[in-house]
Each structure stands twice: as structure tokens, then as C-alpha cells.
Write a structure and sequence with these properties.
Layout lengths: L3 H6 L21 H28 L6 H25 L5 H4 L2 H23 L8 H31 L5 E6 L3 H12 L5 E7 L2 H5 L7 E3 L4 H8 L3 E5 L5 H13 L3 E5 L10 E3 L8 E3 L6 H11 L1
Parallel strand pairs: 1-2, 1-4, 2-3, 4-5
Antiparallel strand pairs: 6-7
Length: about 300
């Protein structure tokens, strides 16, 4: 059966922010661009943290303002490195993590708390004065600045991808209606970052679809087809494969170090309503009833009144 942890580790959500760098030996469309985006995001985090902590630390010292900045620099730089390392430890430089807004927000919150604690802990050895109040202010400012900078980065990247830059080549596995809908989705919304280079499945079934994307192989030779296309990722239309075939294909693709994303077949169900509820070796999703949150209900009632 499908190993749930393996499938989750290979998931490839929309690469709007960060990058999922290809594993060694895996096919890749453009590793240079992926590395460039990764370096840019790391630089944004470092610059944001440094811009916050330099004035926070300098504010705790006496004397002229400009004279305070140089002594505060070692601790500010150290905290900036801590921010980047904690973000890396939480995998906030991977697209499959930081594209989920709730996951990114919670991760950045933890990073900001660690940054504040590190400021207090390291202030003594580095001969600085950072009290608890300054640490709290610095942590809160770090969270606000990182969110703002990463939001701006995401908007810039979506705009660039809408113009055909920084896209990732993927194959769609399946020739069903669901697979056709996925191909159309990626073509109509290039800002998502997917560029479909081919579909894998039945040639005759796909011929009935109105699509210019070619069939590059059948399901039995999925791995070879992906390698020939040099696509680092595959999106599987779950309706196109029976359970046994799906299990085999996922394992073969994972063994070839190809990123795998499986469509749930739910086109118009918000992801916030889905809860992973695995039963034994089967991955199931529980669909929450659609309802407004408490504050949304209050806001709606206020607007009605």
C-alpha cells in the first residue's frame, strides 16, 4: 500500500514561494533559477531580521545614535543568522511548506519567538543590553517585517511566473477529465508556476481532448517518460488510476527522485475544509461542513444590520 509519510514528503504544492530544489540525480528544468530564488528568499529573511534587530539592540545603549550601531552589529548579525537557520529547520525555504499560508505564518511566529529568546541569551556574552521588553518588541517586529517581505516576494514571483519566468516543468499523469482540467488550470493560471510538458496515459483517450499538450508515454512507462521530458515533478490525476496502479506508480516515481503531487479530485472544495484522516494504510480526507468562523459570522451580521 502507499506509504503516507513517503507521499507527504514528495508532495509538490504550487511553488509560489521558496523552492523545492531537485534531489541529487533527479531530473530538473533549471537548477540555477531554483537556487537563485532560494538565495533571494534567504537574503530577504537575513536583511529583514538585521533591519529589525540593529536598531532594537542599539536602542539599549547610551551615547549618540550612530555610535551605537557598530557595537550592536555583532549581536544583530548573529540573531539574523539564527532567524535564517530556524526558518531552514522548519523547511520554510521549501515551496511545499511556505506556500501554505497558515504553515508559513505559524513557522515565522516560532522563528520570531526564538529570535527574541536568542537576543536575551546572547546579549551577555556579546556585551550588549537586551532586556525582556526589547526582546518582545524585536520578536514582534521580526514577525511583522518577515511577513511583509515574504508577501512582497510572493507577489513579485507570481507576477514573474505570469510572464513565463521561473516556472517548473511538470508532467500530468492521466488522460481523464480530471487530468484535462489540471492541464487547463495550469495553462490558464501561469502564475501558479507549473508548465506542463506532457501527459502520461492513453493516447486514444487524450486525442478526444481539446489540448495541445502531447502524450509522452503510457502509465507502465511513467518513470521513463518523465526522465525523457526532464521534468522534476509529476501531478497525478487520481481518477485516472486504480488503487494498485497508483501505489506502484507513486513508489516508482519516488524511487526515481521525482516530486509527486496527487490530485484529490475535489475541484471546488476549499483546502481549509479538508482534514487528513488516514485509516490504516489508506489516506482519507475528512471534509468539514462549510460554515463561517465566529468572527466572520459577527462581521456578516454587522453588515446585514
Amino acid at each position: 500500500m502507499i506509504n503516507l509519510d513517503e507521499v507527504r514528503s514528495r508532495a509538490l504544492p504550487s511553488p509560489d514561494r521558496g523552492t523545492d530544489a531537485p534531489a541529487p540525480g533527479s531530473p530538473t528544468a533549471d537548477p540555477v533559477r531554483a537556487s537563485w530564488l532560494l538565495c533571494l528568499l534567504v537574503a530577504i529573511d537575513l536583511a529583514g531580521a538585521l533591519a529589525v534587530w540593529e536598531p532594537v539592540i542599539a536602542g539599549g545603549r547610551g551615547g549618540p545614535w550612530l555610535a551605537r550601531l557598530a557595537p550592536a552589529a555583532p549581536l544583530a548579525i548573529t540573531i539574523s543568522l539564527v532567524v535564517s537557520l530556524v526558518n531552514r529547520a522548519q523547511r520554510l525555504y521549501l515551496a511545499r511548506v511556505c506556500t501554505v499560508r497558515s504553515a508559513e505564518m505559524s513557522g515565522l511566529t516560532r522563528t520570531s519567538v526564538v529570535a527574541g529568546a536568542a537576543a536575551v541569551w546572547l546579549s551577555g556574552p556579546l556585551h550588549q543590553s537586551v532586556d525582556v521588553v526589547a526582546a518582545v518588541i524585536g520578536g514582534a517586529a521580526t514577525l511583522a517585517v518577515l511577513i511583509a517581505l515574504r508577501t512582497g516576494y510572493a507577489r513579485w514571483l507570481r507576477s514573474a511566473r505570469a510572464n513565463g519566468r521561473f516556472t517548473r516543468a511538470v508532467c500530468v499523469l492521466g488522460t481523464s477529465d480530471e487530468a484535462h482540467d489540471l492541464v487547463q488550470l495550469f495553462a490558464e493560471q501561469p502564475e501558479l508556476g507549473y508548465r506542463v510538458v506532457g501527459v502520461i496515459g492513453d493516447q486514444h483517450e487524450w486525442a478526444s481532448r481539446a489540448s495541445d499538450v502531447p502524450v509522452i508515454g503510457d502509465v507502465t512507462g511513467a518513470v521513463n517518460a518523465v526522465l525523457r521530458a526532464r521534468a522534476p515533478g509529476v501531478v497525478i490525476a487520481v481518477s485516472a488510476l486504480p488503487g494498485g496502479s497508483l501505489d506502484r506508480v507513486v513508489r516508482e516515481l519516488a524511487a526515481a527522485r521525482v516530486h509527486v503531487q496527487i490530485s484529490a479530485g475535489l475541484a471546488r472544495v476549499g483546502h481549509k475544509r479538508l482534514r487528513a484522516a488516514p485509516v490504516s494504510h489508506h489516506l482519507l480526507f475528512y471534509v468539514e461542513r462549510h460554515q463561517l468562523s465566529h468572527w466572520q459570522s459577527i462581521g456578516k451580521r454587522a453588515m446585514d444590520v
